[in-house]
Amino acid sequence: MKLCRYDDDRVGLVEGDSLTDVTSALDSLPDMRWPVPAGDALIAHLDEFLAAADEAAATVRKRLADVELLSPIANPTKIIGAPVNYAKHLAESRADAGIHHNRDIKTIDHYGLFLKAGTSLVGASDGIALRFPERRNDHEVELVAVIGSTADRVSAANAMAHVAGYTIGLDMTVRGTEDRSFRKSIDSYSVIGPWLVTTDEIPDPMNLDLTLTVNGDIRQQSNTRHLIFDVPRLIEYASSFYTLYPGDLIMTGTPDGVGPVAHGDRLVASIEGIGSMTVDVRNA
Ligand code: MN
């Protein structure tokens, strides 16, 4: 299943270049009042939601070209990032002063993981708003694993049972000397989309081509088999420090080819088995 959130928080099942509206299936989610439990309610009850969507006999179809695509995950408790998780990106980071800013770039097992503010989360149609256009703002295309069920100190061997699906992420970054989580938490600097693809459609997330173009030019092109910490190990690593909740997003790291974007640029991020998302860049 490819599940999208669009327009005024509507939900659609994506097939080809169109979607079927299944917003009425949200009625299957439990009634909630403050304080709401941790985690994204739709992802926590995804099976019930999809069953209700199946019975809804939805008839409203829309062309994807005619809707505004929002982040398919609305309420993650955490957006987790993986620093320098591709060897070639590690090498380019060490070679480029515009990336390392005179710091010794170490490895993911040295840094651990980092967190991005939930308020940085947007969807493809929201676009990226550069808050400091005079500084270097880089694109980072990444496979994103979406946690499906609560995971506390799980082993890599058991990790994949806690994944709901995958989506594409842009871990946008303003380069500089500040802490990584600060530089990557600017509003709109976590672009997720264009939809969630459930795990049944992606049995092996560790062999997916991923590509990013800027104004039609290929900037990043790799495959997730080159990840240093693969998805199961990232889940084991993350959940060894904090409990993962449904809807939590693990941005798995970016391959080499990162580079600056500017007002007016159009990014197209693609991952095999998921699709492509088009994201425009503007000044905030
Ligand atoms: Mn990144």
Strand content: 25-35%
Series of secondary-structure elements, N-terminal to C-terminal: EEEHHEEEHHHEEEEEHEEHEEEHEEEE
Distance N to C terminus:
34 Å
Q: Structural class from helices and strands?
A: alpha+beta
What's the helix count? 8
Number of domains: 2
List unreliable stretches of 5+ residues. none
Silhouette: globular
Q: Got a strand count? A: 20
**Overall average pLDDT:** 97
What would CATH call the architecture of the largest domain? Alpha-Beta Complex
Question: Largest sheet, if any?
Answer: 12 strands, mixed
- Gyration radius from CA atoms, angstroms: 18 Å
Question: Could you explain the architecture of this structure?
Answer:
The chain is α+β, with helices and mostly antiparallel strands and 284 residues long. The protein has two domains: 2-70, Roll (SH3 type barrels); 79-283, Fumarylacetoacetase-like, C-terminal domain (Fumarylacetoacetate hydrolase, domain 2, Alpha-Beta Complex), CATH 3.90.850.10. The protein contains eight helices and 20 strands. The chain has helices at 41-44, 46-55, 87-95, 97-100, 108-111, 156-159, 180-183, 231-241, and strands at residues 2-6, 10-15, 18-21, 61-63, 69-70, 79-81, 114-116, 121-122, 128-130, 137-139, 141-147, 163-171, 173-174, 190-198, 209-214, 217-223, 249-251, 259-260, 266-271, 275-283. The strands form three sheets. Strands 1, 2, 3, 4, 5, 6, 7, 8, 11, 12, 14 and 17 form a twelve-stranded mixed beta sheet that branches. A five-stranded mixed beta sheet has the order 9-20-19-15-16, with no helix packed on it. A three-stranded antiparallel beta sheet has the order 13-10-18, with no helix packed on it. A hairpin with a 3-residue loop joins strand 19 and strand 20 (275-283). The relative contact order is 0.21. Manganese (II) ion (MN) binds at residues 81, 140, 142, 171, 251, 253-254. Manganese (II) ion (MN) binds next to loops.
